[in-house]
Amino acid sequence: MYKLKTVDVWDTILRRKCHPEAIKLLVARKISIDFDDQLRPEFASHWEVYSERLEIERNLATKNVGLGRDEEYILSDVIETLLKNILKRPLSAERANEKVNELIEFEVYSEIQNTYVDSGIKEFLSQTSADKTIFLSDFYMPKELIWRILHHHGVDDLIDDGVVSCDIGLNKRSGRLYAYIHENYDVSPEEHIHIGDNYYVDVETPSKMRVMAQHYIPEKEHSERSVREELFNTRAALFSHLRETVCIPAEISCENNDETARRMFALGVDAAPLFIGFALFIAEQCLKDGIHKCYFLTREGDFFSRVFRSIFPNKEMVGSTLPDDRLLFVSRYSTFVGSMEEISLEEMKRVWSLNWQQTPDTLLGILHFSGEERDKILKRNELSGGEIIDHPERNPGIARLFEDADFLKSAERIRKEERARLSEYLKQVGIFETKRVALADIGWRGTIQDNLARLAPKVEFVGYYLSLRKFLNPQPSNTVKRAYGPDERVEDVSSFSTSFEPLEMLCNSEYGTVVGYSADKHGDVRPILANDTDECSNTQRYVNPFQRGVLAACELWQPYIHNHAVSSAEIRPIALQIWERIAGRPPKELLAAYYNAPQNDLFGYGGLFDRSRAPTLTQILCAPFLAKPRRELIQYIRRTQWAPAVSALPVSPLHKLALHALYWLAHKYKRFRVIRFPKGNARSGE
Questions:
Q1: How is residue 10 annotated by DSSP?
Q2: Please, are residues 160 and 136 in contact by the beta-carbon 8 Å criterion?
Q3: How far apart are CA 408 and CA 632, in angstroms?
Q4: Which of 269, 578, 603, 651 could be disulfide-bonded to 549 (CB atoms 3.0-4.6 Å)?
Q5: What is the DSSP letter of 115?
Q6: 3-class SS letters over 313-356
């Protein structure tokens, strides 16, 4: 029976799910996001903010030693000094006090979220009796904050009181805190028993003072702690651990023994960091940009939103609430006509800048003319519906079409109807009532965002994209676009540009393409969805298992992402490597998915395109001399572009070699055009 029992808190009563320093890094990450544009240049990363905090702690500890105390400091002093050191301009006294308190609360919250009660401590404590039991901790949080953490975990009933080193400026390491306890609790060293995990601080030091010390270091918990601390040392160690861990579900999580599904699932597991990084990027930017609502654009947005919600199940990041998010059923096709200010050649150039080859039938389809109306207009204007026209804006036949009064009248009627329905749909989903909204999509030039911005000029649209190409159309003044991955506006994206389509396919959904909007008798507007049977089958066989693999990996990555304060920028190098690996060394299942997925070209040539029907060797040999095979060959290369996919074609080795050579030449020609004519020849696929 002892008069006093003291118990260490960290790694004795409570265990952490991460390295202790990860909590400080979390606070630094919150500061980086909250004060994004207010930080001095040298503190651009949360790691730099964290390093500055460590330096402040060392300085405060040294200062206290000079005052005759131990190397101690208190959390509020650290945070207050940190904000003064890293911000471009000092905060007002009121704002500084408010922010210091907010960050302290977040640090307490982070400790609560990332701690749990040691599984054996209650039984261990019951083995010795004492008149009073108190916690005794070398820590920078004052006593009342530690009490809150203990209370949350339901173990404060084991403790009568507590003493923390920062409150009195003395610690266990020096032994002076033990002497303070003996004096203030009126106990002799022989009447005192102490329990803790650190051999020097909790055993050797008190033992020298004749205190009965018990070393508490259970093997299982200590082993897990060592692993967690290793993961904090480098991001490479953390990411390597996670990728090794998530390999396991790839072997056991498929619903059946379908080898194709299993391999696509495994590919999804391996590719998950690409999409996890994108989800983090969206969340970070939403907080930095002050976004009120975030809309994920179909079709790919359905998959992105599921990843986003898997990473942020509580809709919060570093203590801040993320904006409401929802799917927005839109497409380039469904939003173009409604975004037109008038029916004119000038307005159509927004399409032709991207699709410089087009058939008259496709043009009328873009303007939402029905089949019967199309036939009449084509016949009246002596146009062939299937004829491929280069640069329609220069074509005399297209010019005559836009001088046809009946055509213009019908087109204007359709434009107004489509604009009214689209506007009502946007109103229903809350676009018009918000000053600033985010649009999340795969890319590539953000034309849907442009269309929506023209319809809602009072709303600022901020687009978050996996990748961006150079813009070919004038940008509305109420748009901002950001890319997580390759951004052709500022960097070379040539190693990615031919693999956009397979990545699009992997992010596809079974919703189908939005082709318009319909209103019921009550005025409620719903999207009209079109889906090809073959495409749906392809999605079910290949894409769905891939996406299940990504989401399975997300569940395992999610807690580590949060408690290790991982940023999207830290994942980006791995994400780009994954993209390049998928594009450059695709597995046979991905190639099969690519060739089985029909390409529905609503803006260029029109109709469904079968990628597996490659030009024959005869066509390739005749192309330099005959116009028709040359045009067909160019069209095939423009509509596929993905050179590695040639390896999966059921053709002879010589045929494959010829196709590879053509892709290589096409790529070199395109690079030459971009370098020689950077402003005028960056059209998609040219």
A1: B
A2: no
A3: 33
A4: 269
A5: E
A6: CCCEECCEECCEEEEECCCHHHHHHHHCCCCCHHHHHHHHCCCC
